[in-house]
Every structure is written in structure tokens, then in C-alpha cells.
Design a protein that fits this description.
Layout (H helix, E strand, L loop, with lengths): L6 H11 L3 H7 L6 E5 L1 H7 L16 E4 L9 H4 L3 E3 L7 H11 L4 E4 L6 H9 L4 E5 L3 H14 L4 E4 L13 E7 L12 H6 L2 H19 L2 E11 L8 H12 E4 L21 E2 L11 E7 L17 E2 L15 E6 L2 E6 L3 H10 L2 E4 L1 E7 L13 E4 L1 H5 L10 E3 L2 H8 L13 E7 L2 E8 L4 E3 L22
């Protein structure tokens, strides 16, 4: 790192860590640990066997440390959603989720500041049914979030892009809210020059006020008895412990104690109050500065204001022509959106109506297809519309793989496909739409025109590099 650690931060560190401050500061110049979160269902299909001696992330069921950093960009398994690269300490969210679900059923969850998607993936995996609303206010980050969740493949997610104020009117709607709030980013000092250069005491105070504004605004949407997971990637008390006390004392909540193992070296309250909070300091644990507290709402929720919306209700359309592409199609409603046709479970119809009335919905469920204009003909019969399968469907657990012929690619051709190139068919397949797969995992769709496979992989998802490794990257557990 060329940017030095700010002087005021050094002083703050001494006040928090005392005699350990030198060890803590030295850790900020060390290499962070690398972790991945396995998509067990998809990884099993690849035939990859995780060795028995693989080092698990201690506080989660499907997290593993890696010994080295492979070139993730060139791993088709990553693009197919077989795993997600995730900072190990942030996987501690699973401990909070396990506690919550011993107390209540999570029917509706909100990940408020969700990009790039790691916590949404953990929440969705942990939920036993129910609907997850994964929200990201910033449009570019929302696009990344949508891509990552599409690749993971769970259909029971609605992605939205709104600031907290837009949730007004959904009073008591959620059983769980995860708030990984924008913070001063002290945990990023190891790898982000900008985090160091932009840090100041004034910026910390700005973050505190912004975080409290977010919490005040969103608080009414959490039902009484529901839970909030408050987290940051920073070390200081103002954004961590003092904001937890703000939630407990001013908004009305009980701070929950989570069981941990002493061997994990997770640190607790740094203020001397003995609050049940959880710090992952880089000189103690293999993480980058994650902080988490779990709170249960004890205050009453005011009734929602009955404001009329000018937004149209979600339009349900006929699935003639593509219904067979979806497993258990009878369980889904099909909706028309600006990006095509999506499928969402019928069980979530009322929730979707309420959400779409208030929020900017990016994707509801799984994108299934787009409709091409019907071609005119001389026949008196009305021509049937043509449907183009959406890339998201190929990656979804909803895909009926029997609905499309499949062409399995070797590694070199898989990388070409992920770069958006056309590929000569290596095996016979009928003309028309086919799934393109690598080691039994679909990567996307292509239109087989006989002499080549016309690639429909989204431009925004494509590998930009023209370099192709000789062999696939190996995950070294």
C-alpha cells in the first residue's frame, strides 16, 4: 500500500486496542484470508469432491478457506454459480440466522444494502421457505447484485433498487432485516487505497448520522418480535457499539447473545459495557474487520399509511409457449416486465403486489424469456409469438433441463462461450435453442443454427480478457 494509515486512525486504534495496537496495525499490511461459499447443490453436480482435510470457515456450514487465490475470472464454476467468493468473517451472519430461526419463522426478509450479494446468498440459503427482498439503491451495484443472485440460482428472491425512504408504507412487513450499512470502511484498509485516503474523524461522524438515518427510516418495516442484523466493515465504536445502543435504546430492541467458540478468537464489546457484539479484528481472526450485532425488536410498529400508488399491479401473462421450460410450472405465476417475462411462486403473489406498489423492482423471481414479435404470414391463422430463453433461466434451479438439448463444452470452449464468442457445435444437436454446459452445470443458452452456436450470453456478464489459460483454475482448499 502506498497510502499511509491516517494519523488520527492510529490514535483511535490505541484507544481501542491499547497494548495490542501495534499488532493490530501491522495486520493491516498483511494479506487477508480468502474464502468461498459453496453452492452445495450445484457443486455436487460437477463431480468435484471437497477433500476431507479442507479447512472450513468455523462459523458457517458451506464456507471454506482457500490456500491460494486462483484466477477466478477463468473458472466456469464461478460463472455457473457453483460457489461465491466471500470474505470469511462476513459468513458469521449464518450464526445469527440460525438463532433467529429457532425463535421465529422468517417468511419475509429484507437485505437492505445487498450488493454485491454475499449476505443475500447466505440469508436465502438459510431460510426455510419464504421470500427474500434483496435491495441495492445504486443502479450499477444493483446490476452486479442481480447477476450474482441469478447465477446462484434460487428463484425465491425479488431484487429491488431503492433508497430506504421508498420502503415507507410497508409497516411491519418484514420478519428480518439485514443492514450492512455504508460505513467508513476501516476493514478495507488492507486492500483499498481509497478507504485509507478518504478516512477522517469527520467522515466517521458523517457515517454515524447516515447509518442512524437509515435505521430510523427502515425501522417501521420490521414487525415487533422481528430481528435486525446490524453489521459494518469497520472497527470504531461510534459506528459499531454506539449504533447498537442507539437501536436498542432509542428505536426499541433487545441485543441478542450468540454462542461462539473461544478458539474462533472473535472479540466482544470494546467499550467496557459487556454488550453481546462481535468484532472480527484482523490480528485475531481471519477476516477483514467485520462487525455484527443481532437485535430483536421490542417496540410497537405503527400501522401503515394507506397511500394510493400510481403504479400498475404486476401483470400475469399466459405461459403458453414456454411453461415447459420451468420445473413445477403449476406453482408459478408468470409476469411481464420491461426486461421480459419472469416467474415467481404463486405463494408470493400478495407480497409481490405490495412490494411492486412501493418499490422499483429489478427482477421478481427468475427471468424466463423475452418475447420476439410474431412474424407476419399469408395464413389466416394468427402467428404464434416466439420466445427467447433468458440467460438467468439456464442458471436457475427452476430450469427443466429436459426442455432443451444440451451441448457440453470442454474448458477452452467454455471460456470462449463466457467471452461471448460463437462456437462450432462439437456434438449433434437439433437446431434451435440449446443449453450450453460445462461439467454438467449450465452456463447459458445458445441458438444452434447448424454451423455454429449463436451465443446469447449477456454482454455485461462476459469475460473481457482475451487470455485463455491452458487448464481450468484449481481451488486449493
Amino acid at each position: 500500500m502506498n497510502t499511509p494509515i491516517p494519523k488520527d486512525f492510529l490514535e483511535t486504534s490505541v484507544s481501542i486496542f491499547g497494548r495490542e495496537s501495534e499488532e493490530f496495525l501491522a495486520s493491516l499490511d498483511s494479506e487477508p484470508s480468502l474464502g468461498i461459499h459453496i453452492n452445495a447443490e450445484k457443486m455436487q453436480k460437477t463431480g468435484v469432491v471437497i477433500p476431507d482435510n479442507a479447512e472450513r470457515v468455523e462459523w458457517t456450514s458451506n464456507g471454506f478457506y482457500l490456500k491460494s487465490r486462483p484466477r477466478f475470472t477463468f473458472d466456469p464454476f464461478l460463472h455457473a454459480g457453483a460457489y461465491y467468493v466471500e470474505e470469511p468473517s462476513s459468513m458469521f451472519v449464518e450464526k445469527a440466522l440460525n438463532y433467529i430461526q429457532k425463535d421465529i419463522r422468517i417468511d419475509r426478509a429484507l437485505d437492505l444494502c445487498a450488493a454485491p450479494g454475499g449476505k443475500s446468498i447466505m440469508i436465502r440459503n438459510s431460510m426455510k421457505g419464504g421470500l427474500l427482498v434483496s435491495n441495492e439503491p445504486l443502479s450499477k451495484r444493483a446490476a452486479v447484485l442481480t447477476e450474482n443472485l441469478a447465477k446462484w440460482g434460487n428463484p425465491d428472491i425479488i431484487v429491488t433498487s431503492d433508497f430506504p425512504e421508498a420502503f415507507d408504507g410497508l409497516a411491519g412487513f418484514f420478519d428480518l432485516i439485514a443492514t450492512d450499512v455504508p460505513c467508513s470502511g476501516e476493514g478495507m484498509f488492507r486492500k483499498d487505497e481509497t478507504a485509507r485516503s478518504e478516512w477522517s474523524k469527520a467522515n466517521v461522524e458523517n457515517c454515524v448520522q447516515r447509518q442512524r438515518d437509515i435505521l430510523r427510516t427502515i425501522w417501521s418495516t420490521l414487525r415487533k418480535g422481528g430481528y435486525i442484523i446490524y453489521s459494518t466493515c469497520t472497527f470504531n465504536r461510534r459506528e459499531d457499539e454506539e449504533n447498537v445502543l442507539f437501536i436498542a435504546n432509542e428505536l426499541g430492541a433487545e441485543i441478542i447473545n450468540l454462542e461462539t467458540d473461544a478458539d474462533w478468537h472473535i472479540c466482544g464489546d470494546t467499550t467496557g459495557r459487556n454488550l453481546p457484539v462481535y468484532h472480527f479484528f484482523p490480528h485475531k481472526t481471519r477476516g477483514e474487520g467485520f462487525f455484527l450485532a443481532l437485535l430483536k425488536k421490542t417496540s410497537d410498529t405503527p400501522p401503515a399509511e394507506n397511500r394510493k400508488s400510481k403504479k400498475k399491479k404486476p401483470e400475469i401473462v399466459s405461459a403458453d409457449g414456454f411453461a415447459e421450460w420451468i420445473n413445477c410450472k403449476e406453482n408459478f405465476d408468470f409476469h411481464k416486465s420491461k426486461d421480459g417475462i419472469t416467474a415467481l411462486r404463486k405463494a408470493f403473489a400478495d407480497d409481490y403486489a405490495a412490494i411492486s406498489e412501493k418499490l422499483n423492482v429489478i427482477c421478481a423471481g427468475v427471468r424466463v424469456c423475452t418475447e420476439k414479435p410474431a412474424k407476419f404470414s399469408n395464413s389466416a391463422r394468427k402467428p404464434k409469438p416466439q420466445f427467447v430463453p433468458a440467460p438467468d433461466l439456464a442458471l436457475s434451479s427452476c430450469l427443466n433441463r429436459k426442455a432443451f438439448p444440451d451441448i457440453s463444452l470442454n474448458y477452452s470452449d467454455a471460456i470462449k462461450f463466457l467471452r461471448g464468442e460463437s462456437i462450432p457445435p462439437t456434438v449433434y444437436a437439433p437446431r434451435g435453442w440449446v443449453t450450453v454446459s460445462y461439467r454438467n452445470l449450465p452456463l447459458g443458452f445458445a441458438n444452434n443454427v447448424g454451423s455454429r452456436l449463436n451465443n446469447s450470453y449477456p454482454p455485461a456478464w462476459r469475460i473481457r480478457s482475451t487470455y485463455v489459460p491452458d487448464s481450468a483454475p484449481q481451488l486449493e482448499f
